[in-house]
Amino acid sequence: MTSLLYNEDALVGVRRIADASVDLVIADPPYGLGKDYGNDSDRLGAQEYLAWSERWLDAVAPKLTANGSLYVFLTWQHSPEVFSHIKTRFTMVNEIIWDRRVPSMGGSTRKFSSVHDNIGFFVKSRDYYFDVDAVRIPYDAETKKARSRSIFVGKKWLEVGYNPKDVWSVSRLHRQHAERADHPTQKPLEIVERMVLASCPPGGTVLDPFMGSGTSAVAAARHGRHFVGFELNPDYFAIVQSRVAAVATGQMRLALQEHETASVRLDRTGAAAFD
Questions:
Q1: Which 8-state DSSP code applies to residue 61?
Q2: Across residues 228-234, what is the average pLDDT?
Q3: Among 59, 61, 74, 124, which one is most buried in terms of CB atoms within 10 A?
Q4: CATH 1.10.10.10 fits 3-134+165-268, yes or no
């Protein structure tokens, strides 16, 4: 699977991507909250931010196939306006709430603490690709035991697991987390992999206009999807390159191990061995 990584502004680079050639867009744009990404990309005023959001969405939208999907990470400050704009071009399937599992400590004493991100899930048509079986969550042993009555025996759903709900409780990546890269708003791989597996067919193409630390690129590479992505910050771009290279190296190492195991097995049975 190919990974095309570009260290440039997505609004410029996306013009090179053919229309209707991308199966899934995963976008984690700046939220307009003044975060430091090494540039002024997150320091726009409210009206400027909304105008910029419309520009990148209008640039990306034509790249999706007829049955393609779009996931957009945002926060409550701007999600109503941005999601409303997207709904002029797409059908909204879900608003997913990512519960970041922020510990109960500190925070403002003048409001309720914000501990979630909003994720909009949009599609171009009713005939959109969605593989729920790829992302089912297994039932635990206690639940299976509780469903042991005859009316539940042999039920497929009990064996294959349940469909994820629209509240995803996945811990944010703390600085000590093994997955953590040097990026202030890195998203957990678990979340992005769920999007890739559910909404991009095997061998399909994922587009990320704001790669950040490259989690979407890693998810695509790990699961046999092509990938195209853009990142403006050269330091973050280097992180993306490193993470994608690590996936490729790991896959190559695994393939070599499987090859060596097969060679030994074939040799011992008297069949022709691999070179």
A1: G
A2: 95
A3: 74
A4: no
